[in-house]
């Protein structure tokens, strides 16, 4: 099969490798129908040291189950499934608490133990807890818009939803979303679904913020840093935002977040942090009695109702995909996202 590997910053290659096989009785082999490139994949694209051994890539996928381990009981061969970006048993204490990304038997794709999902076939560990059947849809007849929206549920939309959920977005609240990438736009859509009264989107790329407005943003702030903070404070009559959803992961975005959060407000971070330390003292969180929350989205906790929302036509989160490439064209897809020529790239098979 063909699969994606990264050999260093900017060095993405498609290679032919052996098909995956069942390794544990809880495994499944899935034929990938659609995969995609994530904004978090660009972090190693910028900074990964050169290596003679490639790093398997990808963690988002929808597909068809082709083979099952002997202990798999809840999914069947032929099922059309969504795979969350992390795998989990969905039965351990943390999974039962709705924090599936901390599953004691779980883990992440694109590691030495579990290959990435930007490939023609994938081995999915803990298949019963990790794969969710799309009842009422057929991958062979579904249109591209439906496939795109279902694919977005494997990570990007439900990461945006997680930001809004953890931020306790509700009717009457002012929400500010920092970042106009696919996760930020998804956070806008989720905030609208949860009833936010006002949604301020901080982003400077018009093609993206225009989609943000269609998703529900009421205001757009293109300024950054102190200028951006001042603009949000002006829009909120000097009070700040009840809830700030940070979808970037870099320190300047975090600094903007604590600069604009209202006293007693909530900052919810889902941008993968590219730093180890962040201020929490009097001038940032403590003095405002602000709450800091967020983290890697437990997609599995939200997946069934989100699939139904997509099938019912209530949400169309797949609109964040603005470019499609075949598996051989994935390196060009990375380059397009890195150059901001594409918002989010879908991989077709």
Notes on the structure:
The strands form four sheets. Strands 3, 5, 6, 9, 10, 17 and 18 form a seven-stranded mixed sheet that branches. Helix content is 28%, strand content 25%. Helix 7 (206-215) links the parallel strand 12 (198-202) and strand 13. 51% of the residues are buried. Helix 5 crosses helix 6 and helix 6 runs parallel beside helix 7. The chain has eleven helices and 18 strands. The protein is globular. It is an alpha/beta fold and 349 residues long. The chain has two domains: 2-155 and 298-348, Medium-chain alcohol dehydrogenases, catalytic domain (Quinone Oxidoreductase, Chain A, domain 1); 160-294, NAD(P)-binding Rossmann-like Domain (Rossmann fold).
Strands, total number: 18
What characteristic shape results from the CA principal axes? globular
Task: State the end-to-end CA separation.
Answer: 11 Å
Q: How would you classify the quaternary structure? A: single chain
Unreliably modeled segments: none
CATH structural architecture of the largest domain: Alpha-Beta Complex
Question: Could you tell me the mean pLDDT?
Answer: 97
Helix content: 25-40%
């Amino acid at each position: 099969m063909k699969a994606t590997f990264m050999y260093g910053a900017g060095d993405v290659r498609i290679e032919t490798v052996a098909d995956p096989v069942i390794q544990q009785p809880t495994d499944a082999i899935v034929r990938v129908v659609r995969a995609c490139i994530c904004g978090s994949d660009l972090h190693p694209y910028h900074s990964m040291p050169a290596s003679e051994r490639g790093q398997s890539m990808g963690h988002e996928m929808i597909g068809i189950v082709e083979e099952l381990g002997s202990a798999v009981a809840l999914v069947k061969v032929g099922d059309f499934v969504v795979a969350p970006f992390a795998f989990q048993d969905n039965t351990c204490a943390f999974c039962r608490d709705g924090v599936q990304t901390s599953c004691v038997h779980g883990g992440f794709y694109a590691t030495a133990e579990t290959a990435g999902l930007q490939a023609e076939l994938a081995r999915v560990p803990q298949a019963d807890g990790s794969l969710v059947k799309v009842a009422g849809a057929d991958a062979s007849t579904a249109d591209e818009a439906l496939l795109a929206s279902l694919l977005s549920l494997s990570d990007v939309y439900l990461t945006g939803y997680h930001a809004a959920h953890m931020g306790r977005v509700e009717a009457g609240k002012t929400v500010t979303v920092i970042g106009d990438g696919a996760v930020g736009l998804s956070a806008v859509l989720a905030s609208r679904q949860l009833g936010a009264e006002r949604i301020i989107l901080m982003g400077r790329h018009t093609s993206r913020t225009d989609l943000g407005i269609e998703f529900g943003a009421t205001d757009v702030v293109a300024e950054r840093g102190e200028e951006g903070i001042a603009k949000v404070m002006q829009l909120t009559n000097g009070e700040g935002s009840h809830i700030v959803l940070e979808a970037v992961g870099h320190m300047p975005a975090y600094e903007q977040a604590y600069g604009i959060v209202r006293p007693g407000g909530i900052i919810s971070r889902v941008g993968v942090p590219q730093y180890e330390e962040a201020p929490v003292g009097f001038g940032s969180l403590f003095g405002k009695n602000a709450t800091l929350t967020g983290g890697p989205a437990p997609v599995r906790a939200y997946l069934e109702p989100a699939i139904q929302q997509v099938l019912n036509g209530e949400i169309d989160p797949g609109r964040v995909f603005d470019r499609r490439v075949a598996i051989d064209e994935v390196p060009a897809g990375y380059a397009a996202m890195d150059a901001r020529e594409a918002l989010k790239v879908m991989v077709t098979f």
